[in-house]
Amino acid sequence: MFEQIDQKKALLDASRPLPKYTLSSLREKLLLEWTYNTNAIEGNTLTINETKIVLEGITVGGKTMREHLEVINHRDAIFYVEEIVQNKEPFSEWQIKNLHRLVLKGIDDEYAGVYRDQQVFISGAKHRPPAPFLIKDQMEQLINWYEQEAKQMHPVTRGAMLHAIFVGIHPFIDGNGRTSRLLLNLELMKEGYPPVVIKVENRLKYYEALDKAHTQKDYDDFIQLVANEAEDSLDLYLSTI
């Protein structure tokens, strides 16, 4: 599954460092597309051009304050991911809570970075997230899995499974999807991969693959979906060489 990805990643690594302004424009492009798509998956109605305008500090008429905050918050969360990668900080539960706090800042401050105390359901999914009293234990298990089993995995598999396991636990009242996609890219970026963008047009396939992972413990479809998006991002970077 990863032969082409590994070849393209090696080619990209051999071409580094990329020119300063090329790298800057790639980062800006992916930041916009990542922010637009991750919010659109969750129902944000801002178009990609409107998202760009909000990132530039301009208010879009007819859109809610929440939709504006989702854009600004996601940008700040990406900056935090970049900071973690740059500082080579080890993965931790504290980081997850900080990421989530940024995602929900000003939207729901009471639950930002705080595990849920209520049962929730995922619309359209067969999977039912665990009861609130199980969350702390399951999150500890996730960290243990990351520190042991996950270390032996290909970075794409590790990132995809981190995303899938986390969102299956659904530890927060809201913002789990955005946080899970930030965790996916945190893992990939640590290994020198460009961030992947789960595209809104793939939303149905994305949700079906996640539900299969949660109900059947079969992660193959989801890993393949992430691998396809990872290859797209690598192709974008390689197109500049």
UniProtKB/TrEMBL annotation:
Annotated Fido domain residues: 91-228
SUPFAM superfamilies: Fic-like
Gene3D superfamilies per the UniProt record, alphabetical: Fido-like domain
Catalytic site: H170
Keywords: ATP-binding, Nucleotide-binding
PROSITE patterns (UniProt xref): FIDO
A GO term, aspect molecular function: ATP binding
Residues with site note (Important for autoinhibition of adenylyltransferase activity): E42
Protein name: Fic family protein
Organism: Heyndrickxia sporothermodurans
